[in-house]
Task: structure prediction
Amino acid sequence: MVDKESLERIFQNSVKWWRDHYKEKGFSSNPQDYLDCDAYRSLAVIGKLDKKGVSQLILDNWDEIPGIGYTSLLKEIMGDDFFTPDEMRGKIKEIRAYTLGWLFRYLTE
Result:
């Protein structure tokens, strides 16, 4: 397991790199364009090493994560434990609220 300070540093740097990648891509209708980068993969790896720690960092840095990338990232980290209901597809506000609620519940278990 990674110590908390190192985890936070890696997380912050990776989020910054991911935002930069996101901006470089401009507009794309293909979500994979935003996820296909080392920064995203780094976040997924550290997330799998410390699910609770990275989940807390996602929550703490919610507005720093580009687009709705947090849903893809949580799915990557949590596997089948996290999903957004099909009926929410395309409803950004509902997905945000659902994901925040899921994170709160997960972190207080």
